[in-house]
Every structure is written in structure tokens, then in C-alpha cells.
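Whiteboard transcription, Tuesday session. T.W. wrote the C-alpha cells on the left side:
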């Protein structure tokens, strides 16, 4: 005789800590994740297919740049945005990544640092899902060291000319506009603090010399798009520069927005893995009883559940801090490091409960585990966040 596993949220009442508006955002995201993404995600992952028609669905739902105010954006709270990230990543990390690249990176850069003309030109279409943006910071040899940036922009009359390369740029081959970070030779200090300043530029992807090549051979994030970018004499007008960003504090301000979303999102992937393992534990029988009747299996489930709930409570705490304007980069590093590290361990434990079937696409666990390896790497590796926290604790930078 088999049983049905209870819902995880029946054991731990998170809803009691949320507002009605936050619960509505979460339910909207859960519905889209379960009805529009979950039925097709295994095929999309297998076929390396990004389902572009869902971009408009995300826009219509208000998810794109939802934490921003004005220009067609929803102006939702930080916790509401986090809950949307959680539900989307419970379906697949690629779709939380899309919302993050579009809203937390590209749109945030324009919203934070753009001119009014730039905001009016791009943000309403991006919020609606009619336009796609990307965020071009990481370079082939740079990785976690953006200060070593080699992409350069030089002034030529009324234009900027950009040359260089970027790597692992999400959505770039689909994007209408790229937020490109480049080093500007600026001995006069006209565009920064003098010498060589990092500045952001809005580059329409149709500009001659801009080439985006999707990266193939990925064993992770296969239903998502990441690209190599080449800039060969890309010319943009002087007003393409983001006026409000100078130095690496510009892109870092956007990265912190994206990292915050990951704190929540990784817990969505973890919850999905736990749910799969829990359901299997009460429906699969071995030696005449459900495997969930074994003490070792129950111990694994209990430990997984504790880490999911601790991670969600940490995310909620960070969200409340963010809403008060009190969230620090070091606190975000705590969340990103913990959520992704624990989500991966939960995926591994869930796979063990699923036994051999756990490596098949009959269950989402191996796909989540593969995706989480990418999430663990981007927006700061474990090691980078450990160093951020080490600096906060000791006052000594060990980078």
C-alpha cells in the first residue's frame, strides 16, 4: 500500500510570515512555473531550446524588472521578487536566470544609471517582454576579476568605438540591447576619476561589429542561452554611455541585485528536489514497505527539509533588510553562498533516495543539480563569497 507525501509547506507555515500581496505574487509565479514551464522543461533541456514565447508571458505577469518603479515596472517589494525567483527556479534555473538577467542586471543598470531618454527608450519594452536585454561584463580571461577588463571604448568625435570580447553573457544572441562595460582611457578625468575608468554603454545588438555566438557543449543550463561576444570597432553615439555609472561600483550594484534573487531561487531548486525525493519515499516499496519507512531515508529527508527552511528564512530576513534599505553586500554573500551550497547538497541527497531512477529525466533532480553548478559559479563563486565574508570578519582583504 502506498501513501501520498504531504506538501512541504504544510509542515512549515511560511505563508504566515508573508503579506497577501506577496502570496499573490508567489502564486502567480507558481502557476506559470507549473503550467507553462514544468510540462516542457525536460524536452527543452534535452534539446537545448530556449522557449522565447515565454518571454512575453513573463512580461505580462509583471515579473520583468518587477522590483523597479516606473516605466511599466511593477514596483514590487524585495520579498515578492524573491518569491517569484523561488517559484521560477523550482521549475528550472534557466527561467529564474532569464528574469534575473533581464530585470536585475540589464534593466537595473538602465534604471539606476541611465538618462531619462535611455530609460524611456528601453525600459517599458523590456518590462513588457517586447525587448530583451543582456549584461556584458565577464570576459574570457577575467572571470572573478572584472578589474582586469580588457574591453575598451575610445572616443572618436561624436562616437564611442568599442573593441574587445566578453564570455558567458546570458541572452546575448536574443537581445535587442546589450549593457556593455568597457574601460575608457580618460587621462583628463572627463568621464570618471581620470586615468582609466570603467563605464557602461547601451549597445543595440544590430550595431555593425557586434557578434553574439551561443556557447555550445553545455551540460548545465541547457534550456537557457549564454554567449561569447565580440566587439570589432562597434560604434555607438556619445549619448550611449550610461551617465550615472563610473567605475566598477556600477556593475557591482547590479550584480548585488542578481545575487539577491539567487538566494531565493536556489531554494526553489532545492524544494523541487526535496519534493521529488519525498514523493518517491512514500510511493516506492522495497522489502515490503515504503522506503520512507526506513530510518536512514527519514534522516535524509529531515536534514534536507531543515536546510530548505533555514535557507528560505534567511532569504526572507535578507528581503526584509532590503526593503528597509539596510541590506549589505556581505549579507548578500552569506545568502548566496549558503543557498547554492545547500541546494546542491539537497540535490545530491535527493538523487540518492531516488536511486538509479534519479539519474533519468523522469525526475528533475539531475537537471537541477547540473544547473546549480552554473548558479554556484556565476555572480561570484563560493570562494569569492568566502573571501567577501572573510574581509568583513577580519577587516583584511585576501583577494
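and on the right, the sequence the group agreed on:
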Amino acid at each position: 500500500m502506498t501513501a501520498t507525501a504531504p506538501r512541504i509547506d504544510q509542515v512549515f507555515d511560511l505563508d504566515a510570515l508573508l503579506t497577501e500581496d506577496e502570496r499573490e505574487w508567489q502564486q502567480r509565479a507558481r502557476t506559470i512555473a507549473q503550467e507553462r514551464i514544468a510540462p516542457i522543461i525536460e524536452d527543452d533541456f534535452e534539446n537545448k531550446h530556449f522557449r522565447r514565447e515565454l518571454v512575453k508571458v513573463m512580461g505580462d505577469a509583471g515579473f520583468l524588472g518587477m522590483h523597479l518603479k516606473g516605466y511599466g515596472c511593477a514596483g514590487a517589494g524585495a520579498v515578492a521578487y524573491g518569491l517569484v525567483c523561488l517559484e521560477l527556479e523550482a521549475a528550472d534555473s534557466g527561467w529564474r536566470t532569464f528574469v534575473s538577467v533581464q530585470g536585475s542586471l540589464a534593466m537595473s543598470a538602465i534604471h539606476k544609471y541611465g538618462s531619462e531618454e535611455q530609460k524611456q527608450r528601453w525600459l517599458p519594452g523590456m518590462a513588457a517582454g517586447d525587448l530583451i536585454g543582456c549584461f556584458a561584463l565577464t570576459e574570457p580571461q577575467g572571470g572573478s576579476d572584472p578589474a582586469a577588463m580588457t574591453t575598451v571604448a575610445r572616443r572618436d568625435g561624436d562616437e564611442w568605438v568599442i573593441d574587445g570580447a566578453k564570455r558567458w553573457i546570458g541572452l546575448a544572441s536574443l537581445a535587442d540591447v546589450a549593457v556593455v562595460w568597457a574601460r575608457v582611457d580618460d587621462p583628463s578625468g572627463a568621464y570618471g576619476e581620470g586615468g582609466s575608468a570603467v563605464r557602461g554603454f547601451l549597445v543595440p545588438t544590430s550595431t555593425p561589429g557586434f557578434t553574439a555566438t551561443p556557447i555550445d557543449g553545455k551540460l548545465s543550463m541547457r534550456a537557457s542561452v549564454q554567449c561569447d561576444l565580440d566587439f570589432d570597432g562597434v560604434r555607438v553615439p556619445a549619448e550611449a554611455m550610461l551617465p550615472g555609472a563610473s567605475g566598477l561600483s556600477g556593475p557591482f550594484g547590479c550584480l548585488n541585485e542578481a545575487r539577491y534573487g539567487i538566494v531565493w531561487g536556489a531554494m526553489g531548486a532545492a524544494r523541487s528536489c526535496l519534493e521529488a525525493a519525498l514523493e518517491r519515499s512514500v510511493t516506492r516499496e522495497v522489502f515490503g514497505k515504503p522506503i520512507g519507512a526506513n530510518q536512514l531515508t527519514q534522516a535524509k529527508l529531515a536534514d534536507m527539509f531543515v536546510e530548505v527552511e533555514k535557507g528560505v528564512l534567511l532569504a526572507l530576513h535578507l528581503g526584509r533588510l532590503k526593503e528597509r534599505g539596510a541590506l549589505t553586500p556581505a549579507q548578500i554573500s552569506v545568502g548566496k553562498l549558503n543557498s547554492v551550497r545547500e541546494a546542491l547538497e539537497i540535490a545530491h541527497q535527493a538523487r540518492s533516495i531516488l536511486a538509479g531512477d534519479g539519474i533519468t529525466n523522469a525526475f528533475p533532480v539531475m537537471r537541477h543539480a547540473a544547473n546549480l553548478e552554473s548558479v554556484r559559479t556565476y555572480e561570484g563563486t563560493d570562494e569569492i563569497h568566502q573571501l567577501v565574508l572573510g574581509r568583513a570578519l577580519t577587516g583584511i582583504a585576501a583577494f
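Someone added at the bottom: The radius of gyration is 22 Å.
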